[in-house]
Amino acid sequence: MRFRDHTDPNVPYTYHCHLLQHEDDGMVGQFVVLDKGEQVGTVPHAHHHT
After folding, report:
1. How much is the pLDDT for 42?
2. I want to staple 30 with a disulfide (CB 3.0 to 4.6 A). Which of 3, 12, 21, 22 is the partner?
3. At 43, is the pLDDT very low, low, confident or very high (cuts 50, 70, 90)?
4. pLDDT computed for residue 3 by the predictor
5. CB–CB of 16/43 below 8 Å?
6. What residues pair up with 14 in beta bridges, in sequence order?
7. Residues 6 or more apart in contact with residue 32 via CB below 8 angstroms
8. How far apart are CA 6 and CA 26, in angstroms?
9. DSSP 2-50
């Protein structure tokens, strides 16, 4: 998939599954989209729910 106009080294995209059991098994995550020559910037730390 190409994100040509939507790269941001500081803001991750989130993906997830709507089934709660899958969410508990790690089917939620984030990824950062970078353009050629970019490096990951200052991505906010994840907040863990308890």
Report:
1. 84
2. 12
3. confident
4. 67
5. no
6. 30
7. 8, 9, 11, 12, 13, 40, 43
8. 25
9. --TT---TT--EEEE-S-HHHHHTT-EEEE----TT-----PPPPPPP-
